[in-house]
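Narrative of activities, Objective 1.

The group set out to show that a structural description can be obtained from nothing but a protein's sequence at a throughput compatible with the screening campaign. Below is one input-output pair from the validation batch, recorded exactly as produced.
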Amino acid sequence: MRHLKNKGMKLGTDASHTKAMKRSLVNSLFLNDRIKTTETRAKAIRGDVDRVVTWAKRGDLHSRRLALAKLNDKEVVREVFAKAEQGMWADRSCGFTRIIKLGPRKGDNAPMVMMELVTEPCHPKQKKAAEAAPAPVAAPVAEEKAEEAAPAEEAPAKDAE
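Output recorded for this entry:
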């Protein structure tokens, strides 16, 4: 039985070739900050890239050794950890890659993509103004109406005395 023999996408090759191809693509992405590849290969290496960047953000010795075992290139590991130390991904918790579709490849019609590392800062989504605004505005209006009604009730009571 082949339990967990080749986890993930096979990419049309045997396990050792798939592993080598993914390692090569991840190294190329970290060296060049963007690569042009097929959509399937880009989606297959997305998790590996995110894992290495997470290790680089952690920055300890164990993480460096894990990245070195994954990438098998000291210079690439040094460069990724240096970028993480400079704060390239400091405000991001995930989503370190971007895949941009380019269209089909001439020849075999394979869907091609441009995969790149995301360098822009992450801005968390804020609540819309329409959702947040009505609640605070409604409360003061109700208080003003209550204040206007209260003196009107007190005025006739003073006249009666």
